[in-house]
Sequence to fold (270 residues):
Amino acid sequence: MNPCPYCGTLMTSPRRKQCGAPECKRLFRNERMRDYQRAYKEQHGHYQTRLYDRPRVKEYPVHCAHCGVDTVVTKAEAKYCSHSCWYEASHARHAQVELAWKPLLRAPRLSTVTLLRPLRRRWFSTCCPMCSTWFVTDNPRDQNCSRRCGRRAAKDRRRALERDAFVEHVSRPEVYERDQWTCQLCGEAVLRDEVVPHPQAPTLDHVIPLARGGTHEPANVQLAHYICNSTKTYRLELDEQTLDRLRLQVGHIGALSPSPRSFSSGPYST
Fold:
């Protein structure tokens, strides 16, 4: 085993040039760089980095005015040993000057206190008129708990407006409770938990069809099975006697149905 040429430690591999210690690595790299620079100067006439061609920087002894340490610096007019000592001394000097002239200033005038509005959302709770589900939202314009309920309400109003019919707020849960969850076409109970396209799912049916001059209001709607509502058609031949009977039925339903209630106050009131 060969010893390290820098520290004398025995090396396990005969191909190693140094033992691997940080100081030995630094000395080995410096020696290699010096050899490379000498070879470069012999070939080109100057060193590659030009740093070795510059004259050596002069050094001046100084006694630090802040910490009192005797050291060597590169500036003849320097008074401190390092930049940190200069900063600390300069900061202390400025602090003394600040304490000297600050009491001479006039006392600052108290400004008016401004109360800033807290940057947080305002939450509202309301009841969906389509499914009677209470939900929380940060938009006061939201009237439905989901996009599905919003589309259903918009679809009902749009169908009535296309027929130039009278449109009033209709709450499906109120109509279903009024009709006691019983189909008004066949007289059988509907399945509350089912949804369209299940045949027994609850749907909203117009007593007098919109195509026959009916209106979209609680008095002119009733609960019906999806299959019963689908098989019923507005193309039935309705004579004046049948229409009069349906109008009486609509008037009777309107007299029994409660008035549209407001689910909440403020922007949700209807």
Q: What stands out?
A: The two ends are 97 Å apart (CA to CA). The chain has a mean pLDDT of 76.
